Amino acid sequence: MNNNPLPFTKYNYRLMLIGIAIIVLGFTIMGLDQQMHGFGFMGLTLGPVTVLFGFLFQFYAIFYKKK
């Protein structure tokens, strides 16, 4: 039986905070686009790809288990 009553370790929480920061960075990049209605490179490509990477990083942080 596992001694740890909590499902996540301190390391998992750190990884989750990094993932949240990446997601916020992606939305900030989308908001900084100077094109009308955000139809430039930053609003249509760079920002959404960054947000997607942030969500994938969150999945990694949640499922990470120390061996």
Q: Concise description?
A:
The chain is mainly alpha-helical.
Describe the structure.
This protein has helices at residues 10-31, 41-63. Helix 1 packs antiparallel against helix 2. It has one domain (10-63). The chain has 67 residues and is mostly helical. It contains 2 helices and no strands. 67% of the residues lie in helices and 0% in strands. The model has no long low-confidence stretch (mean pLDDT 92).
Structural key phrases:
mainly alpha; 2 helices; single chain; 67 residues
Largest sheet: none
Give the termini distance in whole angstroms.
15 Å
Helix content: 55-70%
Secondary-structure-based class equals mainly alpha
| Number of helices in the DSSP assignment | 2
User: Proportion of β residues?
Assistant: under 5%
Radius of gyration using CA atoms only: 16 Å
The overall strand count is 0
Count the domains. Answer: 1
Instruction: Point out poorly predicted stretches.
Output: none
Order of SSEs: HH
The gross shape turns out to be rod-shaped
Mean pLDDT: 92
